[in-house]
Amino acid sequence: MTVDTTVDESTVHESTVHEAPLVEAPLDEAPLDEAALDKAAVVGASRSLGVRGRVVSRPARTRRIRLRLSRPAIAVTVLALLSFVGSVLLQKILFPDGSGDADEAAYVLQARMLLQGRLTLDATVVEPFFRPWLTGEHDGRVFTKYLPGWPAMLAASQALFGTMVVAPAAVAAGWVVGTFRLARELFADVRTALMAAAGVALSPIVLLHTALPLAYAAGAATLVLAAAELLRGARTGSRPALFLGGASAGFALLIRPFDAVLVLLPVFGLALLRVRQLPGPEWSKPVVRRGALSGARAWVRVRARTMTHRAGWAGIGALPFVLVAAAYCWYVTGSPLRMPLSASDPLDRFGFGPRRILPSESSFLFTRRLALDALRETLAAAPSWLFGGTVLVGLAAAGLFAPRRRPERIMLVVTAGMVLGGYSFWWGSAFAMPGLRNGLGPHYHLAAFTPVVILAAEGARWLGGLSRRLTEWLGLAGRAVGERAVAGRAVGRRAMAGHVMAGRAGDWWAAGLRLARPGVAVVAGVGLLAITWSSLPGRIDVQRGVNESNHFVDELIPDELDTPAVILVTPQTPSRYTQIPYHTLRNSPDLDGPVVYAADIGPGSAALPDRMPGRTIYRLRPEEIVDPTVPGSFRGSFEALRQVTGTRIEIQVNVRAPVGAGQGQGQGLGQGQGLGLGSRLYVRLGGVLRELDGATSHTFVLTTSDLATGPDEIGTSPASLPEELVVGYADGSGAGAAVWEERIPLVQRSDGELALLAPGLGWRRLPTASGTEWIAAATRPVLQVSLTRLDPGLSGRTATGGGR
After folding, report:
1. Residue 96's CB: how many other CB atoms inside 10 A?
2. N or C terminus: which one in the chain shows less Cβ crowding within 10 Å?
3. 569 Cβ neighbours under 8 A, 6+ residues apart
4. DSSP string over 668-719
């Protein structure tokens, strides 16, 4: 690519300040194309420090500038584009609904909030049915646990392209480019940089996380770019590089602030070392001429000015993002220094002791032993997530002991060590152990992978250089032996022939190695690819299982619903949050969608129709089994619900005898059989129990009075509500009897009426080898319950309600 332009150049400033020595060009490669730009940046930096230069006048002239895209630039651009496309394809094919991690729904929700101009949600609106997962509350406002950096990228992708798929794909491409720039800045070798970029692009951990709406990859990729630009700016004084590096560092603080601290500390250390190694005498001369200080002291002052100046440009880039982070924290948590993560729960922090994710969840004790176990498991699983697995780790070890650029290599090792050590104090690393092999992998340690890959690329370059030097040595040795043979003819023909053959053998070995090097590189690449491929089937199978589960839940919901609707989601393990455990069932922040998902909060769910008037109410219960006594029975239910209200409500119960009645079996339905010996029908509300032995049908009455007036009446007390009204049938007596129960949510409305949500939840107790077990299961047709309002003349939401 060539761009032609004209430049009018009348003066050229030649600074007396010399640029820091550029790193040496690699073997068989052209010098870096950035030398001219770097020198101009240094000249500009010297002017800002007050260092006077000599002005050399030149006649004005017009010249033509040609900007050519070098072959390495083309290669890394193609690699970045392939990573972008690969991310899009993986999101569409393998991760259409994410990985199954509920954090993804939290990031997507926050992005949607930003698109609507919201930073928080009204607690009175989302409580108690629509509280999103991973949220905290402050002053009546609900906020997410994460800073807005990554959600802002997702929101920008949605606003610009109509989908959030582009944001992770852009991270994949940016990570490749950032790795190339960082590796080239550290080792000044294009081949090392290209190998490092390819290693990152092909690592399974990168392929996985750049196909998900999680923030781990975005934080790691941003920090790689920040490190590359900050180090380049420290070396050359380039203001654009310093500004971009500072801005990237600031944006990383808005994504994953702890990662930013861990990664940037070693980068700052190397940057200071590079500034300190700038040439001294040349920098000190302008100050010495003013007669104020000695040469050594002058150099100290100039070096301090240089550090301050370059840090200032980096700070200018980072400052807007730091201010945004502080303002955001101040707005949502009440303090600019209080992060949303810990504000949502003081126990969600680093260190040892009791830890939990939210106040509503149970806590566990995070100990040093658990931390060591997590670190050991992480180190064992991490190689399989790298391109080439343990072979790449071996190349990284070789790169660590390569003879050149020791400070740069130490910086990479320290960065990886900081990330590993820092997250040893994070309780989430212990929770992540089950998914280290085939789940999300060591996702907390994602920022440590790029340094390892860069070290491996440098190790591969060094080993390649050794093989090249071995080839050259064999060639020289062969020629030396041949020359010795020619010069030593006096020793006799037989001796001379031996020398000649030895010389030719050396030449042949050298030529053979030269010819074999490309083939060896290809074989090595194929071997690394095979090692990587062998680790994928198990992970793909796990993800396919996640996709099948998501598809199963989606299939339970009919395509045609009586909208607007609200779906009460009832998981096997109760949760007061939406998106748990079915994170694909997501609400819009303003709850104005045609279908809204509500959390089943137990007996209080009977108030949901009053909370969402005008919407049809449904219940989704994916874990309900149709008949638990039949192996492989269908599971999952979706049914319409009705709210039954009134001051007196009739409960009609009918029982159909199951097969094996009276034997505690409950294997099926009898054909005209009566109920077995010891069977009973009952209704229970709190501590009040009404039961009948051997009855197949009966009617009870639920009243608002806490004093029942008859044997079939059940009174309620406002202090005891909300509560579950339990209607049940036991097929026999004793603890081993099979039991059918329908548990109906019950609340008392503000006008004093009772409100029930029918049908209730079906449960069955089955005999097992170890005792009995309660299972979420359908109770019809064995147990059928219907509710009827007995208050004629009073308005109600519905007069009758069916049951199971």
Report:
1. 12
2. N
3. 578, 582, 585, 597, 598, 599, 600, 620
4. SB-SSPPPPTT-EEEEEETTEEEEEES-SEEEEEEESSSS-SSTTEEE--GG
Candidates 447, 506, 512; CA nearest to 473 is 506
* Vertex 186: Cα angle to 182 and 192 (nearest 5): 80
Residue with tokens 């607690």: 123
Q: Which residues, including other chains, have CB under 8 Å from residue 709's CB and lie 6 or more apart?
A: 703
Burial of 730 (0-12, 13-18, 19+ CB in 10 A): buried
- Could you give the CA distance from residue 480 to residue 161 in angstroms, rounded to a whole number? 67
Q: d(Cα 704, Cα 618) in Å, to the nearest integer?
A: 26
Say which amino acid occupies 470. L
**DSSP string for 728-791:** EEEESSSTTSEEEEEEEEEEE-TTS-EEEEES-EEEEEEEETTEEEEEEB--TTTEEEEEEE--
Q: Which amino acid is at 381?
A: A
Tell me how far apart the alpha carbons of residues 119 and 110 are, in angstroms, rounded to a whole number. Answer: 8
Of 85, 72, 92, nearest in space to 32 by CA: 72
Cα dist. 99→104, 155, 489, 697, 698 in Å?
Answer: 8, 20, 76, 49, 50
Whole-angstrom distance, CA of residue 57 vs CA of residue 583: 69
pLDDT of 675 > 90? The answer is no
* Confidence (pLDDT) at 711: 80
Give the whole-angstrom CA distance, residue 198 versus residue 574.
Answer: 45
Quote the CA–CA distance of 600 and 608 in Å, as a whole number: 9
Identify the helix (H) or strand (E) that includes residue 308. helix 295-333
3-state class (DSSP) for residue 196:
helix
> How far, in Å, are 142, 229, 569, 653 from residue 579 at the CA level?
16, 39, 9, 35
Longest dimension (CA), the chain: 134
What is the spatial distance between Cα 102 and Cα 133, in angstroms, rounded to a whole number? 8
Please, is 652 exposed, middle or buried when counting C-beta atoms within 10 Å of its C-beta (0-12, 13-18, 19+)?
A: middle
By the 8 A CB rule, do 749 and 770 touch? no
Cross-strand bridge partners of residue 620: 569, 638
Structure tokens at 622: 């994916």
Give me 802's structure tokens: 């069916």
Q: Which DSSP symbol is given to 213?
A: S
Q: Is the Cβ–Cβ distance between 192 and 233 less than 8 Å?
A: no
By C-alpha distance, which of 331, 352, 329, 353 is closest to 342? 329
Rounded Cα distance between 461 and 764, Å, is: 66
| Pairing between β-strand 761-768 and β-strand 771-776 as defined by DSSP bridges | antiparallel
Give the CA angle between residues 82, 85, 90 to the nearest 5°: 120
Residue 236 in tokens: 């050359």
Q: Is-contact 463 398, C-beta < 8 A?
A: yes
Q: Which residue has the tokens 């070396």?
A: 235
Burial of 177 (0-12, 13-18, 19+ CB in 10 A): buried
415-424, 604-613, 652-661: lowest mean pLDDT where? 652-661
Residue type, 302: V
The answer to whether residues 396 and 463 touch, using CB atoms and an 8 Å cutoff, is no
Quick: pLDDT tens for 687-734: 889 989 888 899 999 998 776 667 888 988 887 889 999 999 998 877
Report residue 66 as tokens.
């040609």
C-alpha radius of gyration, the chain, whole number: 36
Q: Among residues 186, 182, 224, 179, which one has the least CA distance to residue 201?
A: 179
Is residue 471 classed as helix, strand or coil in its secondary structure?
helix
